[in-house]
Every structure is written in C-alpha cells, then in structure tokens.
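dumping this here before i forget
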Amino acid sequence: MYKLRKQKQEHKSNCLICGHPLEYLSSAFELTCFYCGKKEKGSIFCSSDRYHYVCDDCHNLSSFNYIKDFILSTGGKNPFEITFDILNNPNVTVPMLGCHHAYILTGAVLASLKNRGHIHISRADIEELFYRLSKQAVGGYCGLSGVCGIVPAGGIIYSILTGSVCGKDKEQKITMKITALLSKAVFDLTGPSCCKAYLFKALEIISASLYEDFNFLLIDNDVDITCNFKELHPHGCMREKCPYYADSYIVNVEKLKESLKDTTIEINFKLDKSSFENNNNIPPAPC
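structure:
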C-alpha cells in the first residue's frame, strides 16, 4: 500500500488529492476515504465539488512509514537536524499540517537519545511509541478538543524514559509535567495553528527539559532554524507573531539550559535518575 500511495502526486498543502482548500466542520458525519475506501465519521474534507476525504491513517501513511524507517536508520545526534532532514526531503510528501509532526517529534528526540548512547531503542519500541501516538494524536482535534498531538508526543517520550503507566507515582507526575509545558507553548503559539511552529518549539522545550530533568544534552552547538514553509500554510502564516518567521532563529545551547526557569508553569519535581540507569528503563514492546 505504501508503494502505491507514493506513485500518486500528493499536495503538501490543503487537500492531498487536488490541492483545494479544506472544510473544517464542527460536527462529524460519515465520509468515505479516497484512498482506502473506509467509511467513518470525519470532520475535515475537500471543498471542491469532489468532496475528497482522506482518513487519518492514510493522511499519515506515506510520511509515517518514511519517518519510522528514517529514525531507525539515521546516525544523527541532533534532533533539530533529524527533523529538518525529514521535512526537507523532496522525495517524501510531508503535508504542511497534520499529526505526522507528532511522530517526527517523538522519533527525532528518541533517535538523538539512542545515538548519543543515553537509551536503547528498537524497532519494536518505535512501533509501540507510534501506536500510543495514534490513540491521541488525531488530525483536526487540536481545534475540536483543544489538544494538539505534539502534547502527547512529548509525554510518550517521558513515559518511555521513566516507565510511566497509569497508577505510578513519580513517573506519571514527571510525564504530566512535560505535557503541561508543551500545552502552554502550543497555547502561546496558536492563532492560527501551525504544526511546524509547534514542532520547533516542542523540540526546544523537550531538549531543555531532558537536560534539566536527566542531564541529557541533545545538542552540542547552536541551531539555526530557518522556516521554509511560510507560503504553504493554508490558513495563513502568523508572520511576525511567530518566532520562527524571521529569516533566522537561533537556538542557543547555553540559553536552552536556562529556558525552563522562566516558565510560568511552576512544577518543582525531579525524578530519581537511578530508575533508568543501565538502559533498562524500556520494557519490551507488546507488538
């Protein structure tokens, strides 16, 4: 199915099939996926007279498979560089908006942790992580429920590091700490929503948080973020309201280490790092 999908020309903005603007509904109704023929309730479809609809599975499929394979094969140690390698690949269609950005976030950070020797990560682990994301990162629900898929993506990173599951104490608390920070950041950036901006900011926050909580440093040098996606935004770029609109946005290593101290969310909590030493923190994935 992946190879068949990639033979089709897909648009990076608006409708994947024809490029027309999308309609966002406040109430879902039954639609049929253009690609797989699945009938389901949906709230986003094409505004053209064809009324194209793409289910969330198919919307993420081509980029999902590529992201997974890239994360497992890359030797990159910088999550920002890994992210831009994925986003800027001319041979892969990564739509301007969508929850594949949550998969990129989780994958880029875990690849960095793995390649720096902080943790062991396997294909089964990636399958498990992406399965968890599929349960909470759903296209369009940033507007319908107020929860962007970037938020649980960050929580999944922490749940893997700490072994957090429902009912645990410190592990679950520190996992909810990172989702609180990410949710606040998404709130600050919204107007309209931009998955690219959320992804870049989440990389900053998680890089800083992993250093603060676990002393895991993911970048060795300053990072220059250049956004080349401004003209692709179907709802209109935030322009000067977005920190990444400028021609160059520098993520400074030293400032990154201090950044969480200025947050308005005060959560004073540290996990005992002995709980994940010796790389035994990740249980076998049940898949």
